[in-house]
Design a protein that fits this description.
The protein is an alpha/beta fold and 306 residues long. Helix content is 39%, strand content 15%. It has a 9-stranded mixed β-sheet, sandwiched between helices. Helix 3 links the parallel strand 4 (57-61) and strand 5.
């Protein structure tokens, strides 16, 4: 594996728990919404959100280093087919505020929970990309599946990326430390140099530049903190506890999260999950293979309708 391109762009831009957050009622979460497209969290963080259409809800959770706009091509497709689409910018990303902490998975899962509770979503489908997949899984293991009908994990960073004694095929911690040190010196240059593996050779230069523009809207502090979370959080035991229908989509040309280390391992750990492997698809499969992914999501929604 090319270590330079590994964990590139969306995933690489990835990696204080809030006491009592999980106990807040749905009513309290709803009243925390203020005028305008924001949800307020107990620590003062404002989360920018989108809420489109009517019908059964589909919640999209974006990768680290991007924002909810990265899901636009899927949200447009899904909402036109009679579903309600909800998405939000992770703290430190896009139009959400940039707090000094809270980039651990517990807090991020609680942020996702606040969105689900604010709109009182029921029978929701949670769709994550890259780091967003970890937030989806942590939401389920932390808050349960009462409000969730099914999940889809696209190019997931799961189950565990770091090399340890019991995970010998992971990536050495020193690699991630060197990469984050590069970010701290010149993050825009690193992004420009490592954007290509996120896409395919056929991707238009305009699309690549647009993707980079999303990364430039991410706080460097958030990008570094999220990368620590992504690379050092072990989800192996949590995946065994997932109790809802699960679709896993992964490209066999993913340089950021190689299929054997992530997608295939994740599928083996989640009971009854379905793995779809896209030939030649990179980490940015939600942009490079959007038509196929959209149809995959619609089939999944129809087959597992509740």
């Amino acid at each position: 594996m090319n270590r330079r391109s590994a964990l590139s762009f969306g995933t690489a831009a990835a990696a204080m728990s809030l006491a009592g957050t999980a106990s807040h009622s749905a009513a309290a979460a709803r009243t925390s919404m203020r005028a305008g497209p924001y949800i307020e969290r107990p620590d003062g963080t404002s989360l920018f959100f989108k809420d489109w259409g009517k019908g059964d809800p589909v919640v999209f959770v974006h990768s680290a280093g991007t924002n909810s706009d990265v899901w636009a091509y899927s949200m447009i497709h899904v909402v036109k087919r009679g579903f309600r689409c909800v998405a939000f910018d992770r703290r430190g990303h896009g139009r959400s505020s940039v707090p000094g902490g809270g980039y651990d998975y517990d807090t991020l899962a609680d942020d996702l929970g606040s969105v689900i509770e604010a709109f009182d979503l029921q029978k929701a489908t949670l769709v994550g990309h890259s780091m967003g997949c970890g937030e989806v899984v942590r939401y389920l293991t932390r808050h349960g599946s009462k409000r969730v009908a099914r999940i889809a994990l696209v190019a997931a960073t799961l189950p565990f990326l770091l090399r340890t004694a019991d995970n010998p095929h992971g990536i050495p911690k020193e690699y991630f430390q060197r990469m984050r040190a590069e970010w701290a010196r010149d993050y825009p240059q690193w992004l420009a140099a490592n954007a290509a593996p996120f896409f395919t050779p056929e991707t238009s230069p305009a699309m690549i530049q647009w993707g980079l523009s999303l990364a430039h809207q991410t706080s460097l502090h958030a990008a570094i903190a999220c990368n620590v979370a992504v690379t050092e959080t072990d989800f192996r035991e949590e995946l065994k506890k997932i109790d809802v229908p699960t679709l896993i989509v992964h490209g066999n040309a993913d340089k950021s999260c190689p299929l054997e280390m992530t997608g295939r391992s994740t599928a083996a750990m989640i009971p009854g999950s379905e793995l779809k492997i896209y030939e030649g698809a990179p980490h940015g499969v939600l942009l490079t293979h959007v038509e196929r992914l959209n149809e995959e999501l619609m089939n999944f929604l129809r087959v597992h309708s509740v």
